[in-house]
Amino acid sequence: MPDMEKILKKVGFNKAAKLLPILKTKSIKMKLAYKEYSFISFADLIKIINEKDNVASESPYSIENKINNVEITSIDCSMDIPPIKILEQIGNIKNNNIFDNFIIVGANGDSTKILFGLIGYCGDCFFITTY
Predict the structure, then answer these.
(1) CA–CA separation, 9 vs 20, rounded Å?
(2) Is pLDDT at 87 greater than 90 in this prediction?
(3) SS3 sequence, 88-127?
(4) Which DSSP letter does residue 76 get?
(5) Using CB atoms within 10 A of its CB, is residue 1 exposed (0-12), middle (13-18) or buried (19+)?
(6) Residues paired with residue 74 on neighbouring β-strands, in sequence order
């Protein structure tokens, strides 16, 4: 099988050649994630959030307003402190190096949080746990 990276470089596709190893890694991560975790597209997650809030309008303004009732936060920006078992679970998952980031989804006024794993360039959110 030809070495695609070398061929790309040889014919002048230098940026594509640099991107190829990243795409291979993402492909492996996605295969593992889809095998091990339930998932939902980010777009469907937003639809569910809006349906829960009984949004009748398709206006982007209503989506923005209703999303303000739900917090979607990257763990590196979160002020939330999960229970120790959740922190340990995140640590174990990070050791597997499948996800590039994690988000916490929670409705304002509701203490239940949902933790999802994310993979760059993938539009799906992978369910990890609730707490």
Answers:
(1) 11
(2) yes
(3) HHHHHHHHHCCCCEEEEEEECCCCCCEEEEECCCCCEEEE
(4) G
(5) exposed
(6) 103
